[in-house]
């Protein structure tokens, strides 16, 4: 049942993004920002962690999870280190994901042949 809920919640998040894009005629970059901010707001309200516990990868894979990670890291480090913890927390929590994206993009560029 975990896989079903992950599929349903992840699909719902993506469908909301598609509806925003189609309904308001926004470019994908704007919709991405809206979804990141939505994830940040949901984490700030304390609602994203229960969603992750319920939906698993359905809530951690979409772009809303990046907003969740930013706020989650900032708030946890702010409790420990004060104002400077807000900045360091953002980098600490998201650095692994950003580093992985850079490494895999590099590897894809090494092994893929561009069409042009």
Automatic annotation (TrEMBL):
Keywords, in A-Z order: Membrane, Transmembrane, Transmembrane helix
Record's keyword annotation contains Membrane: yes
Keyword Chloroplast: no
Transmembrane segment boundaries: 6-24, 31-48, 54-71, 83-112
Cross-referenced NCBIfam families: spore_V_AE (TIGR02839)
Protein name: Stage V sporulation protein AE
Classification of source organism: Bacteria, Bacillati, Bacillota, Bacilli, Bacillales
């Amino acid at each position: 049942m975990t896989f079903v809920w992950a599929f349903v919640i992840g699909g719902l998040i993506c469908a909301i993004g598609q509806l925003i894009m189609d309904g308001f005629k926004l470019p994908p970059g704007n919709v991405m920002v809206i979804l990141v901010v939505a994830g940040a707001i949901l984490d700030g309200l304390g609602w994203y962690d229960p969603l992750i516990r319920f939906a698993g990868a359905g809530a951690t894979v979409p772009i809303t999870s990046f907003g969740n990670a930013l706020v989650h890291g900032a708030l946890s480090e702010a409790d420990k280190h004060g104002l400077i913890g807000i900045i360091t927390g953002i980098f600490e929590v998201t650095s692994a994901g950003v580093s992985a994206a850079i490494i895999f993009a590099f590897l894809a560029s090494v092994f893929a042949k561009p069409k042009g």
